[in-house]
Please model this.
Amino acid sequence: KWAEELEPKLRSSDQGRWLRRLEVDHDNVRAALEWSRARGDILEEFRLVVALSRFWDTHGHLREGRVRLEAALSRTNNDLPFRLQGQALCHAAWMARIEDDTAAARTHYGRALDIFREHGARIDIADALNQLGMVAAEEGDFQTARALYEEALALCEDVGGSARLGAVLNNLGALSLRLGDFDAARRYLEQSAAWCESNGDEQLHGLVLHDLSAADLRQARYPEAQAHGTRSLRLLYGCGAVVNIPAALDQMALVSRAQNRWERATLLLGAAEGVRDAAGVPLPRDIALDRADAAAEAKRALGSDAFAAAFAEGQRMSLDESIAYACGPMHVS
Model:
């Protein structure tokens, strides 16, 4: 019950404090899960894994979260509430997608979508469609991704006041950016940022600002790219979204690369890899090529030895040190 009461707070403007609170109590939570499983209480196990999924996939416990969700799903039965089953499938799919297992992600989202359609749960349908769009985009099927996003957007707008609207707008913006339509990208991303401001979703706001920084960079608007990237990192760090920080550090490295600030770019690439390794977050394929290109250019500019030294220095940075280096000291209450 405590975890269920806590779950909405993990989506609030005070998300970071509650994520840190859960980190302190993580061993107790693990014990509660093992107790539920030992008793064969599948309903209690599902309630716990769904309530804790936001913590696992955000605060650096991605692998553990996915394993626990998959274990629960292997014991599912039709007596469970439909929304609980669908939510567990969506959370497992999200974690699979982050781990670049798009086949598993597509399967889980497809099952969830079938469940939600069967029960006419329109906002849950929109969420599953949006997430399936992300899988399609990561597989390079941009036409399918756009169709799924637009169907999700229509549902969100029809329902009104949807908690999914900001994410759908962000995804449409990110897709437009990948397709080189900068005007559409900015329009969607600015709408998403305004939604985040109104609804207090700091994690999503950080992701939107990351995409705006990428759009700035593509258009050689370097001061804006730096400003958006810095604000993105501050928000993601402040709300405890550890899983998103490596990509945000990579983005700051790409901004430095564009300005020929080679040592800084190299340190940030190293810092991103260090945080990514510590949090167990795989390198997303959509940024892997840019990272590799930036590293190769920095190595040519600095020389192999200086590059290796700077990269290693970045890798040794703690999370706090990485943030402080990337955007200056900050204090989080």
